[in-house]
Specification:
The protein is about 20% helix and about 25% strand. The chain has about 200 residues and is α+β, with helices and mostly antiparallel strands. Strand 3 and strand 4 form a beta hairpin.
Length: about 200
């Protein structure tokens, strides 16, 4: 799927009125609502099953070919393998069409509280029976494409103090344990390992 889907851009009032649902996202245990692969720039493949790999991230995704301005040699950033976003926020700004959700450019869409308070960097999440990912300290920020697809108010809200605290634009993560994951899988926060300090 390329960018053939159009989204009715929401007003600030519409976004503010629906934000309470995002604030009520489940904490600690939720659901994988959507998985998306990006094989090339501006191309999206909505998946029912996805394979996570510690080296490649999401198999078939273009992360490993994407230069990063945050690495000294512009190689793909290892702590930005996966972009994870709250599915309630995406539904608020894009509507119920999952193809429209995919335009956000994230790979994993979860019904889960992704706020900084609930999920500081270092938090580990189990997806399904085996896969484990880790939240990293790399910020995930909105870009011009996000504003063009979902509107200036959607872009503006992610930069507010609350938007940043809730991580409305999502978070970055890396794969610790690879496995096949599927839409509908449980996503659960794992307890910190003994002696492990979670980054704040």
């Amino acid at each position: 799927m390329e960018n053939s889907v159009t989204v009715r851009q929401r007003s600030m009032d519409e976004i503010m009125e629906g934000l309470h649902r995002v604030r009520q996202s489940p904490r600690g245990i939720g659901t994988l609502a959507l998985a998306v692969r990006r094989p090339a720039v501006d191309v999206r493949e909505v998946l029912s099953l996805a394979e996570l790999d510690p080296e490649a991230g999401l198999l078939g995704d273009s992360w490993s070919q994407r230069p990063s301005s945050r690495t000294s040699d512009r190689s793909p950033h290892p702590d930005m393998q996966l972009n994870v976003i709250n599915s309630r926020f995406v539904e608020l700004i894009a509507g119920p069409d999952r193809d429209a959700w995919a335009l956000a450019g994230d790979q994993l869409y979860v019904d889960l509280d992704l706020s900084i308070d609930a999920m500081p960097a270092g938090t580990r999440l189990a997806i399904g029976d085996r896969a484990v990912i880790e939240v990293t300290d790399q910020p995930h920020t909105g870009c011009a494409k996000f504003a063009a697809r979902f509107g200036r108010y959607a872009h503006k809200i992610v930069w507010t103090e609350e938007g940043q605290r809730l991580r409305l634009r999502g978070l970055n993560a890396r794969v610790l344990v690879g496995a096949t994951i599927g839409v509908g899988d449980t996503v659960r926060q794992l307890p910190a390992l003994p002696g492990e300090a979670v980054k704040t």
